[in-house]
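Structure first, sequence second, as always.
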């Protein structure tokens, strides 16, 4: 379909008329429509991740994406204005879901961290973080890759990962951070992005609880200590 027709479809949708309703056909509203919308967005997300990895963002069109997701262009434009809008929406949804955990991350106590060093049981919010990462795993794996979005990667590092690092610091370092503290946080936040990237690249073989334990064990590792998991269990 020519680009002019694609653009016309987009204008129709964003004028408030869904393409599937052109000609007087009305879809039923309610739960069935919601389920279809969720299913369509999931198919688009998976197809987008596949094509982004294979060709890069500028290497495919809306038509290519629709074909890969087994939908038509009209359905795509009923959800997004263009691929840039879709990418931004996906990224905002991922970051919003992860940042919703920020209050829990900030509330992690020293007693919880001490318990982790003794038992190997990580604070529950660290497990939730990896649950959410797994939920968006196929798209995140590409977004965090060299072919991904550098701006999104910076948001992951500076918002989510930096907060996780701060959660294990003593209060005096978070309330009155020095320049060295900020370097410390930046160093470990960048390392955490690398840890997440490797886990995603390997196909997420470890459970969310195992990854939370690995992450915290690395963050608490002291120079000269054996490289092993905290809590005594291998």
């Amino acid at each position: 379909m020519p680009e002019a027709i694609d653009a016309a479809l987009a204008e129709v949708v964003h004028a408030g008329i869904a393409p599937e309703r052109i000609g007087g056909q009305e879809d039923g509203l309610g739960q069935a429509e919601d389920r279809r919308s969720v299913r369509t967005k999931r198919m688009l997300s998976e197809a987008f991740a596949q094509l982004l990895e294979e060709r890069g963002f500028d290497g495919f069109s809306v038509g290519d994406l629709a074909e890969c997701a087994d939908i038509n262009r009209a359905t795509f434009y009923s959800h997004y204005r263009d691929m840039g809008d879709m990418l931004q929406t996906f990224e905002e949804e991922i970051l919003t879901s992860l940042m919703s955990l920020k209050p829990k991350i900030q509330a992690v106590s020293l007693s919880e961290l001490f318990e982790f060093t003794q038992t190997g049981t990580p604070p529950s919010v660290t497990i939730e973080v990896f649950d959410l990462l797994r939920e968006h795993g196929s798209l995140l794996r590409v977004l965090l890759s060299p072919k991904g979005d550098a701006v999104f990667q910076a948001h992951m590092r500076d918002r989510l990962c930096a907060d996780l690092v701060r959660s294990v610091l003593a209060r005096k370092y978070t309330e009155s951070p020095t320049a060295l503290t900020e370097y410390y946080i930046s160093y470990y936040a960048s390392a955490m992005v690398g840890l997440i990237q490797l886990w995603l690249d390997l196909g997420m073989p470890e459970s969310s609880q195992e990854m939370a334990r690995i992450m915290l064990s690395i963050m608490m590792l002291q120079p000269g200590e054996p490289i092993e998991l905290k809590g005594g269990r291998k």
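Margin note: DSSP finds 13 helices and no strands in the chain.
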